[in-house]
Write a structure and sequence with these properties.
Largest sheet: none
Shape: flat
Order of helices and strands: HHHHHHHHHH
Radius of gyration: 21 Å
Oligomer: single chain
Helix content: 55-70%
């Protein structure tokens, strides 16, 4: 990467990071599934294999995302040093996860003599997104201890303050979507099959954490991740087939408009100068 022209070095770092992240995710997923094998937990059967794979993927994303972004896109330190510290942070985070996994499993097996396999998909579906958020914060804390990021200079400019305000509001929107069958905020009640339920208990926490990392800590490396997380859900909902009542259509249009505005604030000249590389 040091031999690449200066304008292409950030792109080269991003490409190398993605190329290394794929095998790292596969290895971490395998390790997460191996923990279940050590305990003799069944992973095959109707509804079990897919749930375990999704659970392992969420665990891997929570552990590897902060080291990949903070180390892979850092142009201030040598590549070998960044790779070594990222691996150390990932291993420490996974070690803490494995210790917690075995401790919780030991308690469950001690107080439940006949675990029911058909409950596993429901438990994994419920706990996976929450665990991913916890691991995301844990891995971030460990990574910044090994690779301290630069601090933004001066107070946040107006576009960044607007972004923080909009981001806090947008973090609450998935909760309203999750309560669609119960007529939230006076909106018409929707059938369970007519609303989006993609891990609503994960999205508010994830969006709020990314707002804090970008808008308060000024970390530019998390800006693409926020744009993806902020826009992907609303756009997928807007493109879903089927008609919903007009109030819900207006609600979703408002969410898309606020999401676009929040993301646009991050790319204004003053915000780009304030965010740290």
């Amino acid at each position: 990467m040091s031999g690449a022209p200066a304008p292409f070095r950030p792109l080269a770092r991003a490409v190398v990071t993605l190329l290394l992240l794929g095998p790292a995710l596969a290895l971490t997923c395998w390790l997460a599934l191996t923990c279940a094998d050590f305990l003799g937990i069944a992973r095959d059967g109707y509804g079990l294999a897919e749930s375990w794979e999704n659970f392992a993927l969420r665990v891997s994303l929570g552990i590897l995302t902060p080291p990949a972004l903070l180390a892979g896109l850092d142009g201030r330190r040598p590549p070998a040093f960044r790779l070594r510290e990222a691996c150390r942070a990932s291993l420490i985070s996974f070690g803490i996860y494995a210790a917690g996994f075995f401790a919780v499993s030991a308690l469950v097996t001690r107080f439940s003599s006949s675990p029911r396999a058909w409950l596993l998909p429901l438990l994994l579906e419920t706990l996976g997104p929450l665990l991913m958020c916890v691991l995301l914060m844990l891995s971030y804390r460990i990574t910044v201890l090994m690779l301290p990021p630069p601090q933004p200079q001066g107070p946040a400019p107006a576009p960044v303050r607007v972004f923080v305000a909009l981001g806090c509001v947008l973090a609450l929107f998935p909760l309203v979507e999750a309560m669609a069958p119960e007529s939230p905020l006076g909106l018409p009640a929707l059938e369970p099959s007519a609303h989006n339920a993609r891990a609503p208990h994960q999205d508010p926490f994830l969006l709020a954490v990314l707002v804090w990392l970008v808008g308060c800590r000024g970390l530019r490396v998390f800006r693409p991740l926020y744009v993806i997380a902020c826009l992907l859900g609303p756009l997928l909902i807007a493109l879903e087939p089927g008609l919903v009542p007009l109030p819900w259509q207006m609600f979703r249009i408002l969410r898309v408009a606020l999401s676009l505005t929040a993301c646009a604030c991050l790319y204004t000249p003053t915000a780009r100068r304030w965010l740290t590389a």
